[in-house]
Design brief:
2 copies of one chain form a homodimer. Helix content of chain A is 30%, strand content 19%. Chain A is of the alpha/beta class. In chain A, the strands form 4 sheets. A 5-stranded parallel beta sheet of chain A has the order 3-2-4-1-5, with helices on both faces. A 5-stranded mixed beta sheet of chain A has the order 6-7-12-10-11. A two-stranded antiparallel sheet of chain A has the order 8-9. The interface between A and B is large, with 57 and 57 residues.
Chain lengths: 288, 288
């Protein structure tokens, strides 16, 4: 059996009892290590689970699937994923390979940012399409996520923005020379994400475009969600662009239409004056 | 401390280790029992947790919050929610009351249908707004969810449909006479949900409306997600309208634009010919 086991969001104890029991039965345990991170490292997990973990980077999962699947028809193998195995990044490819090889698989779910984001007080069923923000380079500054956010907002919906993670990236030079030297991992912060959005808003304004959001739009910055030291900070986009929420992982939410109960919840984590600019749309909803 | 603890989706062992540890510290443990159900009953949970559970129905949560919060500043109290505490139904009201009363609170997340639905093979970031389907009555047949599904589809997005749960409902007669006699609980099935959608499609067609979905649209029925006997069934809307997926809870997904990997995943659970009508939109996406 191949187990896909979600680890949840905080530390080692966020695994489910069912997931922990499954790990203990497995002869090999892989830890997917390129789409998310826990606030604790591999060693802490190994100690907690009482098992050695094999780090599975993107190369191993995409090109070394045979190694992961080896003997999984006669023994139990676990593939651990921070959050839920079918969260922001799905592992459909590995599922399909297992099925093709006649290996039964089972999913043990857990919380992921895709549902835990609800703790900020914005209601999950008022979220539209989720977007991803990538690190801009000198020559590549995509803005399509901005248009999706505005489309969600025009329908009254909030947007969860997943922020870029760069793990095991090579510099162009090292890549060209075939040197397997990797850059230090980079995790986009709420501050960086808000700054990117501010730049887009500014550019669109200069082009005379009608703006779907502004520097005063209410946003929520989330850091290390589910961990003991999680931070949830509500502010205008401008405020979040100068907020330091500490170590990774970070996510950002751009609000849409707000119900009074949502506003009350946001108030619990709001910067001074963050909600001051809210305008009543009708008797029971607000927007910024 | 007031703990909001998600129980996940399957049975007693789907709680996180952290959640279970918190329960063991608590002097009172409430089980929210009106927005979802596990496949195991209260007694099985009590045995597993080694704690007596107090059932919290809607009346208790909405009107008896003081009872839940009593002494939670000096002792630990847990409020258990199937899925995640901030999943489809949020418990913002209880959070706000706790904060007002100066009681610290903590959330221990878990999987909910809002993220676990990803296991069907449709990618979570391709989902639009979530909708709810309610049981129709003779005089009340709302259709607004249909328009939201079509709006999602026109943007290429999938739609998660949460299906109605009627627990502790009174008949009109019993309500009028003030008799606290309750009807047996009712849980909408995938079959019923698909049938409602078929009726709407048919009515809109007769009115000459341009259709955002049809009886041939590919949908996914989900039953008891996360439990040992979970069922995932992919079919056209018409096929799902005559599928029996067994006991509750059920959910339904209406597909939007499909990527080849999503189609491959759907194939694993597809009824014969379910995916036959897919049309290529461009070189890499399909729709029905």
């Amino acid at each position: 059996m191949l187990y896909f086991i979600g680890l949840g969001l905080g530390d080692a104890a966020d695994i489910t009892v069912k997931g922990l029991q499954a790990i203990k039965r497995c002869s090999r345990v892989y830890l997917e290590a390129y789409t998310s991170i826990l606030t604790v490292g591999k060693e802490a997990l190994e100690e907690y689970y009482g098992k050695e973990l094999i780090l599975a980077d993107r190369d191993l999962v995409e090109q070394g699937a045979d190694e992961i699947l080896k003997d999984a028809d006669v023994t139990d193998v676990a593939f651990l994923v921070v959050g839920d195995p079918f969260g922001a990044t799905t592992h459909s490819d590995l599922v399909l390979r297992a099925v093709q090889a006649g290996i039964p698989y089972r999913v043990i779910h857990n919380a992921s940012i895709m549902n835990a984001v609800g703790c900020c007080g914005l209601q999950l069923y008022n979220f539209g399409e989720t977007v991803s923000l990538v690190f801009w380079t000198e020559t590549w500054r995509p803005e399509s996520f901005y248009d999706k956010i505005c489309k969600n907002r025009s329908a009254g919906l909030h947007t969860l923005c997943l922020l870029d993670i760069k793990v095991k990236e090579q510099s162009v030079e090292n890549l060209m020379r075939g040197r397997k030297i990797y850059e230090p991992p980079r995790y986009m912060t709420v501050q960086q994400a808000a700054d990117q959005l501010m730049q887009i808003v500014q550019r669109r304004r200069e082009e005379g475009e009608e703006l779907g959001m502004t520097e005063d739009t209410v946003c929520v910055g989330l850091a290390r969600l589910g961990a003991d030291d999680q931070v949830v900070r509500t502010g205008t986009l401008r405020q979040l662009a100068s907020c330091d929420l500490g170590p990774p992982l970070h996510s950002l939410v751009v609000s849409g239409r707000l119900h009074p109960l949502e506003v009350d919840m946001l108030r619990l984590t709001a910067e001074p004056d963050a909600l001051k600019g809210l305008k009543a749309i009708d008797s029971s909803t607000y927007c910024s």
